[in-house]
Amino acid sequence: MNDFYIALGANLPSGGSLPSDTLKAAIDDLSQQNMAVQAISAFYRTPCFPAGTGPDYINAAAHLKSDMPSKDILAQLHEIEAKHGRERVERWGMRTLDLDLIACGDSVLPDLATYETWRKLSPDRQRQAAPSELVLPHPRLQDRAFVLVPLRDIAAQWRHPVLGLTVTEMCNSLAPEALAEIVMLES
Question: What domain count does the chain have?
Answer without folding.
Answer: 1
